[in-house]
Design goal:
alpha/beta, Rossmann fold, 60s Ribosomal Protein L30, Chain: A, about 525 residues, seven-stranded parallel sheet
Length: about 525
């Protein structure tokens, strides 16, 4: 009989799910790291919320553990790479608290508009400062939503219901989806300039970290109000503090902080700040939903091998895994390459399979392509939720299968369409090693390394020498150098595996080389 340790509080209904499936459970909450490490070797499954930290030492001690289930979306308290190395599946429940988080953002927006928190403190202190708290109406105001995915779209619907104007910035929001939601899709600078209220609903990635800083605030309307129920780190707190004190920002409502629990913070103590202790997902309904959902997912995996909402494993049977193994690497590389190449709002993805790969179960491969294609912009994307994200954002996904080979015995082609521009990559297998054989319509042959410099250029004499000299002078060692072109003197590309990162100064020098059109560093 499988045995599951419940290390954070789950509802009685969730525990009943395990019991009804014949799974033994032990509930031990509030464990210290050492206590968890000492206990974990006796369990097949571990169910947690956000309080328990599942660290590498804990995972290394978990000699029997097969699955870790997080009742909620964030897995930052779980060492996912360590779990993956040990063959432990990590699951979450990415959609169980979307409504609750969206409603909390709306509640904070109302609180800011009418200065409810400050008025409450004043009134309970025995004052009657009716003239002091002159709020603003939400009716007719412009709400700017940064990140219009699952939670952001719910916020948009609620805001439209109270007759606000809604504008949204989201690179993955298609024009068709924006029309369906009733929002206006805008660029980030336009959102900053027009919004009376700004609410954040984007994951924390390298692209979104500090997305609201001094330069962003300088573009905003005087008197703007800001709400963050997404992730700490999206706002540069020092810059927001100055703006609150100077009156540029009329108020802020913050539910998430870079360091939690946030018992001290530079923003605290201001009447124009509303702060809550990460309550976005804290309703009885949401807590019940995610608890029952994770109990069902863990049970299904331990009893039948079903993988649902895994963040580190494609949905595969044991037999399929053996056959798909080499193609998994190819799918990851093609998706990741195109995801780093494409710019603008994604509207469609076309995936073509030819030859031997066309006879296989393609669903895991397509999910891997989508997850790696979306990954550079969406930190929470995985092989399970990538197709769902595409459907939510009206990104059309087409899958073409041809069992008969053309030139190669097996071939995969991934094409992304964004802002009416097509970018694609084609690959095959040499033995069991993935190879890139075309980028857009340019033929070449390249094996991708961990770090690749991509250069698009005009094919002119001396270009390769200039590029090599520039990299050499910067101390950048070249591993491989591959080129492709359409015709002499026309468009060309270079793919260069390099042994070290390129700093900003080196990148600037590469861009300054005559006939360079585009430069990017890609990671795989």
């Amino acid at each position: 009989m499988p045995k599951v340790l419940i290390a954070d509080t789950l509802s009685a209904q969730a525990v009943a799910v395990f019991k009804s499936r014949g799974i033994e459970t032990v509930t031990r909450t509030g464990l210290s790291p050492q206590e968890l490490k000492d206990l974990i070797a006796a369990f097949d499954g571990l169910a947690v919320r956000s309080a328990t930290k599942v660290t590498r030492p804990v995972i290394e001690a978990a000699t029997r553990l097969k699955v870790i289930g997080r009742a909620g979306i964030g897995v930052d308290t779980i060492d996912v790479p360590a779990a993956t190395q040990r063959g432990i599946v990590v699951m979450n429940t990415p959609f169980g608290n979307s409504i609750t988080t969206a409603e909390h953002a709306i509640a904070l927006m109302f609180a800011l508009a009418r200065e409810i928190a400050a008025a409450d403190r004043s009134t309970q202190a025995g004052k009657w400062e009716k003239s002091r708290f002159l709020g603003v109406e939400l009716y007719g105001k412009t709400l700017g939503i940064i990140g219009c995915g699952n939670v952001g779209s719910i916020v948009a619907e609620r805001a439209l219901g109270i007759k606000m104007r809604v504008i949204a910035y989201d690179p993955f929001l298609s024009p068709e989806r924006a029309v369906a939601l009733g929002v206006e899709k805008v660029e980030l600078g336009d959102l900053f300039a027009r919004a009376d209220f700004i609410t954040l609903h984007t994951p924390l990635t390298e692209q979104t970290r500090g997305i609201i800083d001094a330069s962003a605030i300088a573009k905003m309307k005087k008197g703007v109000r800001i709400i963050n129920c997404a992730r700490g780190g999206l706002i540069v707190e020092e810059d927001l503090k100055r703006a609150l004190d100077g009156g540029t920002v009329a108020g802020a409502a913050i539910d998430v902080f870079p360091v939690e629990p946030a018992k001290q913070n530079i923003l605290f103590g201001r009447d124009n700040l509303v702060a809550t202790p990460h309550l976005g997902a804290s309703t009885s309904e949401a807590q019940e939903n995610v608890a029952v959902q994770i109990a069902e997912q863990i049970s299904d995996f331990l009893l039948g091998g079903a993988v649902t909402n895994a963040v580190n494993l494609p949905s595969l049977t044991a037999e399929e895994a053996v056959r798909l193994g080499p193609y998994i690497s190819l799918a990851k590389q093609l998706g990741g390459f195109v995801g780093q190449l494409v710019e603008g709002s994604l509207s469609a993805v076309e995936i073509e399979y030819e030859g031997h790969v066309g006879d296989l179960n393609l669903k895991p491969l397509t999910a891997l392509v989508l997850a790696n294609l979306l990954g550079p912009s969406l930190a929470t994307v995985n092989v399970v939720n990538a197709p769902v994200i595409c459907r939510e954002r009206d990104i059309r996904v087409s899958e073409t299968r041809r069992s008969e080979p053309s030139i190669y015995q097996t071939l995969m082609r991934v094409t992304a369409i964004a802002e009416n521009t097509r970018h694609g990559a084609t690959g095959t297998l040499f033995g069991d090693r993935p190879r890139l054989i075309a980028i857009d319509s340019m033929m070449l042959e390249a094996e991708l390394g961990p770090r690749v410099l991509f250069v698009r250029n005009i094919d002119k004499p001396g270009f390769v020498g200039n590029l090599g000299r520039t990299l050499g002078e910067a101390g950048v060692n070249i591993g491989t150098f591959n080129m492709g072109r359409l015709q002499p003197g026309g468009s060309a590309i270079c793919l260069i595996t390099v042994d070290s990162d390129l700093d900003d100064a080196t990148m600037a020098k590469v861009r300054a080389i005559p006939n360079v059109v585009q430069v990017k560093v890609m990671s795989f």
